[in-house]
Amino acid sequence: MTTAALNDRNVGEIAAQLPGATSVFRRFGIDFCCHGDISLTQAAAERGLDIAELETALQALDPKAAPEAPQETDALISHIQTRYHDVHRQQIPELIELSRKVEAVHAGHANAPEGLADVLQQIMAELETHMHKEEQEIFPAMRRKAADPLATPISELRHDHDAHGVFLEQVGKITDDYTLPGDACRSWEALYAGAAQLKEDLMEHIHLENNVLFPRFETGATA
Fold this sequence. Notes:
Elements: H1 3-8, H2 11-17, H3 21-28, H4 40-47, H5 51-59, H6 73-105, H7 116-143, H8 151-174, H9 186-218
Helix pairs in contact: 2-9, 6-7, 6-9, 7-8, 8-9
């Protein structure tokens, strides 16, 4: 990709088509999943980033490298379910339990993540409804390449993803972007490490659906 081509393309498109781009975007703090429909130039401007530095990092990637997830539709759906749906169902309840412990033990601490467990509980509830709909209705329709249009239900799923992004923003605010105080105990350390991993996993999950899987069924071009 030339610099001009990068400038003209949406962040989500770059993330979907250039292996390793999502890691670069995470490093620069660019939202490539829920808000991937803006140009690279606009994304850099909104973050106050040096566009040249961002372009250099992207240009250093190998466009011929192996994709980070399966490309064939059935395999991609299976990957999303096992790598993300199954993992979320394990990791979030553990984080909720750990958060309640940290909030109770460190109640009154100036940096205590007050309210984090409740936000995580909301994330789990919203995600479970979302994932169940995908697993029971949307993914089977995609696998059998159903004739019925999927644009409307996909639009609803994209709306869900936006809500998930808002919850992640709340987690970031409560944890001061996962910044530990100097006297944090090991449970606190584990909580923030797990919450940061959840953010990374959920962003990758949303990216694969928003930017790779869903467009195939909004345009009618399946793989």
